[in-house]
Amino acid sequence: MFGWLKKRFARRMSGLINGAQMATYLAICRSFGADDAQTEERRSALGKRAAAATNFLFGKSPSAEHIRELDLEIEHASALRWLADEQPYRELIVQSLRIANVAAYASSGKVDGILGERVLSRYGAEFPNALNPAEYEELLNRSIAQLTVRQQEAVRRVIQSSGANPSIERRHTTP
Predict the structure, then answer these.
(1) pTM of the model
(2) pLDDT in tens, 28-68
(3) Which of 48, 75, 82, 137 could pair with 52 as two cysteines, CB 3.0-4.6 Å apart?
(4) d(CA 28, CA 144)
């Protein structure tokens, strides 16, 4: 692949994956009850747990704050339990990890480990076919559609700010 084409592909996919991470984070927050938390302190604590879960599911290293303040073994187990119950997000995460690993290889030309190996080993066989970029965008659209309109707009802004220039559709499935 030409260098500029690889960079363009990597930038576009990175932006879409950022959107997938944000959509997942918002879905986990909702599942953990952060949307209904009575105090800002409780909402913040649940948001921190959701962020740690999202980082883990997307193969990201935990932040220093998460290492310091959370029991990551418990949080990772909680993330896997959440993922077991959330088929649409399970597919989104598996496909995101596949694309992230391909993009990392395309950028560097080497493999320094597999992002999200634990999630891919557990759920990768459930979704045996890798998606092309258009199919991945459609999967992301379906996942975003499960969020509130306000959350959908926030995810779209994150994707657009990355320069991914996707065709993310506006869907009104939840209030």
Answers:
(1) 0.87
(2) 999 999 888 889 999 999 999 999 999 999 999 999 999 99
(3) 75
(4) 13
